[in-house]
Amino acid sequence: MKTISKTRAARTTTRVAATAERRSRLRLRDLCDEVLASYRAARGADPISATDRAAAERLLAGIGAIR
Fold first, then answer.
1. Phi-psi category of 44—alpha, beta or left, where left has phi over 0 and alpha has psi -120 to 50?
2. CA 20 → CA 27, 30, 41, 48, 67, distances in Å?
3. Rg of the chain over CA atoms, in angstroms?
4. N or C of the chain: less Cβ packing under 10 Å?
């Protein structure tokens, strides 16, 4: 019986660690995006890339006018 509980504990620990890692990676990615945007703004460059702007324009073109 102890083998089963150790296995469950190991799986739970692994799951919790993986979830925590994903959360911290997401926060790190958000922080990097923010730092890059601030850097581009400080250099006087447009913080939105041409690719992102084109994608947004395509998306907005497909959305009807809001009344």
1. left
2. 11, 15, 32, 30, 43
3. 22
4. C
Residue given tokens 């995006």 in the structure block? 33
List the domain boundaries for the chain: 2-61
* DSSP letters for 14-46: HHHHHHHHHHHHHHHHHHHHHHHHHHHHHHT--
Single-letter code of the amino acid located at 4: I
CA 31 – CA 38 distance, rounded (Å): 11
Q: Which residues of the chain have pLDDT under 70?
A: 1-6, 8-23, 65-67
> What's the predicted TM-score (pTM) here?
0.39
